[in-house]
Structures are given as C-alpha cells and as structure tokens.
Design goal:
11 helices; binds zinc ion; Rossmann fold; globular
Length: 353
C-alpha cells in the first residue's frame, strides 16, 4: 500500500478527500505517524475561505491542518526514545536548528521554518499518515486521548503567551476574543495565578465557555461598551491579549491598558494592515508584544492537562470523520452550533467510506 487518504483544498471553500502518495521516511531522525486526530484551527479556516494568509498563498490542491496527534508507525534509526506504538502530540513547527534564530533559542522564528499545512512549507496533517522529525513528537500522557491531545497545540500558544506575565504577575488582565487561542491564554493565565480576567467575544457560547473556564467578567462588544464596562471595575489593565484579529479590539485594548502596559497580539486580522490610535499608544507608552505561535511549551501544555491543572477538554466541541472535513471547516467558519474547536477523528468513519 503506497497511497493514503488526505483531505485537500481544491479551491476556495472546496475540499476533496482523495488518494495521495504515502509519505516516505525522509531521514534518520524522522518518524512515520498514523494520524489519530486533527484539530481545525482558525488559520485552516482562513486558508479554506480565502486561500491565503498574507503572502502565504495556497497552490491547489493542498493538504492543510497542523494540530494533530498520532501513533508512531515506523522510526528512523536516529529517532531517539520513540518506538512504534507510542502515542504522540505533534509540534507542527519544523525548525532548521542551524540559523541565528535557532541558535539563539528562538526556533519558532527560524529563518527557514517549515510549518505543517502552511503553503510553500509542508503539507498538512489532514491525512492518514505524516512524517515528522522525532523531536517534534511528544509522548502523550496515558490519561489523554488522541482527541484531547490535539489541544496541546493551541494550549501551548496560551502557555507561551501567559509566560510573558511571569515577571510582572498582574492581578487583572484582559483577553479580547475567546476562541480556542483566547481560551488557551485564559486557562494558562489562570493556572499561572492571574486572579481577575476580563474577556470579550461576539459569540455568546464562547463567553459562557470563558466564564466556566475562570473568567471573572465576560461581555460582547455588540451589546456592552467594553471600555467603560472594564474601566468602571478597574483603573486599567497592565496586560491585554488581543486574540480575535478584529481591528476594533486594538482600539479597545489601547483604551483599557494602564500606562506602561503591554498589548499582546495573537489574533490574525483579515486584512494585511491595521491602524492604531498612535497618540493613545505613545502617551501611555504602551508596549506591543507580538506572539508568534509558541516556543518550547508543548510538553508544559501536556503536563498541565495530564496533571489536571488545566482542563481543556471542553474546547473540543465537535467531532468529524476525515471525509467530513469540509463540514467541519464550514461549521468553524460560521461559528455555528456553539463550536469552539472542531476535531477530525480519523477513527471515525464518515459517509465517504
Ligand atoms: Zn492552530
Ligand atoms: Zn533555524
């Protein structure tokens, strides 16, 4: 057998499940994984709807997907401690290990980074098998299922972002946008000791999910004046995480931040440029910190989930078979039916089979 099923983008808003060649073990340190489950990310939805994020443009057909778990099927001779049968969570960022960024401990901004399911980099994991370097694979703790394990990828981003608070330890923070990334920041910040977290989102189900996950105050900017709502309770916030990509949120953040505060940007905007209230930014001397995915936080995310410090399982709200990937992307694109994260479970057999 040298073919496998993969869910491929074949055009804007178009997915086909088709046979593609099985990947070959590329080098000594690689492992062949039988994919167990794949989480659908906001970035996958961007590629599905628009065929691009900024200058990363899809050439069809293309397999997307980067949040996955799998079972080791075959190991290269230098695959370290991994063995066939091991269940693993995958860090989708493959760095070169040699450039200035990698050598400086910043593999997430590697000069020749290749990311799963990123056009021009690596094909994604919405397929039956993938090959990954062994050091991108993290053994899944026994108590986490392959389905839960996919949450390690977004949660690692939350753990990384919340890690920036470690020195200052602000009591109150804001999170604008409570999709999977905003919720991951919320879970990680709460586990790290943030007492009061103010959150906003335009989707009611997501506000409810955030309240259950430990937010102190949750409101929709469509119904509540976010700025006065927060500033009637706090003089201001020292840290605000923008996790929605909505330009309005950047303005709200500048208004609710304290002088000297930090605006963390995680959201992916629909547009290639955004505007800031530059006078607000400079008068308050606000610092802007972009968060580029995560750096070295996958194991920590798995440990927090396995140890019970973080319960992220509620984020995986919907499950689909590989053959139903199109349905999953439509659901995620429409924020329908209370979806937080749709998960493709490759053990499920959809109508395609
Ligand atoms: Zn993702
Ligand atoms: Zn590098």
């Amino acid at each position: 057998m040298d073919v496998m099923q993969a869910a491929q983008l074949t055009g804007p808003r178009s997915i086909a499940v088709r046979e593609v060649p099985l990947p070959q073990l590329p080098d000594d340190g690689g492992v062949l994984l039988k994919v167990g489950a794949v989480g659908i990310c906001g970035s996958d939805v961007h590629y599905y709807l628009h065929g691009r994020i900024g200058n990363q443009v899809v050439e069809y057909p293309f397999t997307i997907g980067h949040e996955c778990t799998g079972t080791v099927e075959m190991c290269g001779p230098l695959a370290g401690a991994l063995a066939p049968g091991d269940r693993v969570a995958v860090d989708p960022a493959v760095s070169c290990g040699e450039c200035d960024q990698c050598r400086a401990g910043r593999p997430h901004t590697c000069r020749s980074l290749r990311f799963l399911g990123c056009p021009g980099q690596l094909p994604g994991c919405l397929s039956e098998y993938i090959v990954m370097p062994a050091h991108n694979c993290f053994k899944l703790p026994d108590r986490l299922s392959l389905r839960q394990g996919v949450l390690a990828e977004p949660l690692a981003i939350g753990v990384y972002a919340a890690g920036f608070l470690e020195d200052a330890k602000p009591k109150a923070i804001g999170i604008l946008g409570t999709g999977p990334i905003g919720l991951s920041v919320l879970l990680a910040a709460r586990a790290g000791g943030a007492e009061t977290v103010y959150v906003t989102d335009k989707v009611e189900d997501r506000l409810q999910a955030a309240l259950k996950a430990g937010a102190a105050w949750a409101a929709s900017p469509d119904e509540t004046d976010i700025v006065s709502g927060i500033l009637s309770r706090e003089q201001g916030l020292d840290a605000v995480f923008e996790c929605c990509g909505d330009p309005e949120a950047l303005d709200q953040a500048v208004e609710i931040l304290n002088p000297g505060g930090t605006l963390f940007i995680l959201g992916v905007p629909e547009t290639d440029r955004v505007a800031f209230d530059i006078h607000g930014l400079r008068r308050k001397e606000i610092r802007i910190q972009n968060i580029r995915r995560q750096n070295g936080c996958t194991q920590k995310a798995l440990d927090l989930m396995a140890g019970g410090a973080i319960d992220a399982a509620f984020m995986a709200t919907h499950t689909f078979a590989l053959a139903e990937t199109g349905k999953a992307l439509e659901l995620a694109a429409g924020y329908a039916d209370g979806v937080i994260k749709a998960v493709i479970d490759l053990k499920e057999r959809g109508e395609y089979f």
